[in-house]
Design brief:
The protein is an alpha/beta fold. It has helices at about 35-45, 75-85, 105-115, 135-145, 155-160, 170-175, 180-185; strands at about 5-10, 30, 30-35, 50-55, 65, 90-95, 120, 130-135, 165-170. The strands form two sheets. Strands 5-4-1-6-8-7-9 form a seven-stranded mixed beta sheet, sandwiched between helices. A two-stranded antiparallel sheet has the order 2-3.
């Protein structure tokens, strides 16, 4: 019997407006672009990655697609990522391309909880992190189809009718993302940082 497919959609198409338009996923942390670190975590659990957005910083050999139109939001990016993946029976991880310290262990925990459901990372304050999640692929495709036109729709539209998501608590450090210049300083962008 064929093993269930394990794939990852990495979102790397935002405007990075709070960073003055600097493309966040291509910023180096520990000498490696953030998006490359996310891809490396996916590959460590044998998940096939596809990046949606700007190709800057994406490792060679990784498929890159673009949401249509560009900058149409994370829901449109997820739809584009799904469109680039042939349908399969398995799990799809959905990750922000600006999370430099997400670990293979965290992704493994999410993926193992997702068959038949959706598993969301939860930060220490109890807040859901929908851009660090694992979906049963059939559930994700059904929800994406039910949403309809994904352009400029909020990400929560994908979660509105999935029922009870499985919530996986993860440390704040693993869920840290880059939104502002202060985040860059805090995460040591351009430096070799602990845990990198």
């Amino acid at each position: 019997m064929e093993a269930p497919a394990l794939r990852g959609i990495v979102l790397a198409g935002g405007r990075s407006s709070r960073l003055g338009g600097r493309h966040k996923p291509a910023i180096e942390v520990g000498g490696e672009p953030i998006v490359a670190r996310v891809v490396r975590a996916l590959r460590a659990i044998d998940a096939e990655p596809v990046v949606v957005g700007d190709p800057a910083g994406v490792p060679a050999g990784v498929a890159v697609v673009r949401e249509e139109p560009p900058f149409a939001g994370p829901l449109a990016a997820i739809a584009a990522g799904l469109g680039a993946l042939p349908p399969a029976d398995g799990v799809v991880l959905v990750l922000g391309g600006d999370m430099p310290f997400v670990t293979p262990d965290a992704l493994r925990r999410l993926a193992s909880a997702a068959p038949g459901a959706v598993a969301l990372a939860v930060d220490p304050s109890g807040r859901d992190q929908p851009l660090c999640a694992a979906w049963d692929e059939r559930v994700l495709r059904a929800r994406a189809a039910a949403v309809g036109d994904p352009r400029d729709r909020p990400l929560r539209a994908l979660l509105e009718t999935v029922g009870d998501a499985i919530r996986i608590p993860l440390p704040a450090a693993e869920l840290a993302d880059v939104d502002t210049p202060e985040d860059l300083r805090r995460l040591g962008a351009g430096d070799q940082t602990p845990g990198s």
